[in-house]
Design brief:
By secondary structure, the protein is α/β, with parallel strands linked by helices. Helix content is about 40%, strand content about 20%. The radius of gyration is 19 Å and the shape is globular.
C-alpha cells in the first residue's frame, strides 16, 4: 500500500517547479501514485511525473503566460467580441500557447468550414482547451450560448473566467483531468483539438474512451500534422490511420477536413 504522506510530499516536490505549480493537483497525485506503483524511488518518481506533465501540457507553453498582463489589457477592451480591438487582443494572446498559435494562419476559415451546417451552436465544451476559448469571435455561436472550457491549469481557468465575464459570455472554465474523469455535461458540440495525442502519453486508450463517453451531439477532433519542431514526418497519414482505429465501431458519422496545419474530423451522432 502506498503511503499517503509520501504521495503528498512527492506531489509538492513535483509542483515546486513553477511550470507545474498551477497544474491540476488531482492529476499530479494520480501520476505520482502510478509511478510509485512501478517501484520507482522518490527522485525517479518526481522526474517521471514531470516528464509526463511536460508532454501533456508544459511543452505547449514555451514560457509562463503572463496572465496579469493579459488581464490588464482585457480590462481596457470594449465589451463587443467582434470589435477589431478585441479580435487583435485574442489573436495576440493566442500566440502564447503553441496549439492556438499554430492555428492562427487559418483561423479565419477553420471553424467556418469545420462546423458548416451545424450552427448556430447553443452549447459547447472545449476540453483541454488551452487558450482556444479566445477563439469565440470565430465560432458560430447562438446568442447567450452556454460555453464550457476545461484544462489542467488553474491559472488558465481563472483567466478564461475573467474573459467570459468581461464580454458577458454565458461561460465557465474549470480544471479537469480527462484521463480520469470524462465530462458528463450534455452539449451540442465538444471540441477535442490536438488533445488525444497528449493524453495518450498517460493512457493509450483515452481516445476511444472519450469518444464513447462524451455527451455531445457533435465532436470536433483534431490532430497536429507537424511536430513542435515543425517536422511533418508523415503525421497526417499516421494520425488518419490512428483515428480510424479509435473510431472503429463507434456510433459516429465522420467528416474529414484537411487544413495546412491540422487534420480535423467532425463526428455527428449516427
Amino acid at each position: 500500500m502506498i503511503d499517503a504522506a509520501v504521495v503528498q510530499s512527492l506531489v509538492e516536490s513535483v509542483q515546486a517547479a513553477a511550470k507545474y505549480a498551477a497544474m491540476d493537483r488531482g492529476l499530479v497525485t494520480t501520476l505520482v501514485e502510478q509511478e510509485l506503483s512501478k517501484g520507482r524511488n522518490a527522485k525517479e518518481t518526481v522526474k517521471a511525473v514531470r516528464n509526463k506533465l511536460h508532454q501533456i501540457g508544459s511543452a505547449y507553453q514555451e514560457k509562463s503566460i503572463d496572465y496579469a498582463q493579459l488581464l490588464e489589457h482585457l480590462s481596457n477592451l470594449p465589451r463587443d467580441l467582434q470589435d477589431p480591438q478585441v479580435i487583435d487582443f485574442c489573436r495576440e494572446a493566442m500566440q502564447e500557447h503553441t496549439s492556438t498559435r499554430e492555428r492562427l494562419s487559418f483561423l479565419d476559415h477553420f471553424f467556418q468550414e469545420a462546423l458548416d451546417g451545424i450552427g448556430p451552436v447553443h452549447s459547447l465544451i472545449d476540453m483541454a482547451c488551452g487558450l482556444n476559448p479566445l477563439a469565440l469571435p470565430w465560432l458560430p455561436l447562438a446568442p447567450n450560448a452556454r460555453v464550457l472550457a476545461c484544462d489542467i491549469y488553474a491559472d488558465m481557468a481563472d483567466f478564461l473566467n475573467a474573459f467570459y465575464a468581461h464580454f458577458g459570455v454565458n461561460g465557465h472554465a474549470f480544471n479537469c483531468d480527462l484521463v480520469h474523469k470524462i465530462p458528463e455535461e450534455k452539449v451540442q458540440l465538444a471540441l477535442l483539438l490536438k488533445t488525444i495525442p497528449c493524453l495518450e502519453q498517460v493512457d493509450k486508450s483515452i481516445g476511444r474512451r472519450l469518444l464513447s463517453g462524451l455527451q455531445a451531439e457533435h465532436v470536433l477532433v483534431s490532430f497536429p500534422v507537424h511536430s513542435l519542431g515543425g517536422r511533418g514526418k508523415g503525421m497526417r497519414v499516421n494520425y488518419d490511420q490512428h483515428f480510424s482505429e479509435i473510431i472503429n465501431g463507434l456510433p459516429w458519422a465522420v467528416k474529414r477536413f484537411d487544413f495546412s496545419g491540422e487534420l480535423v474530423f467532425r463526428l455527428s451522432r449516427a
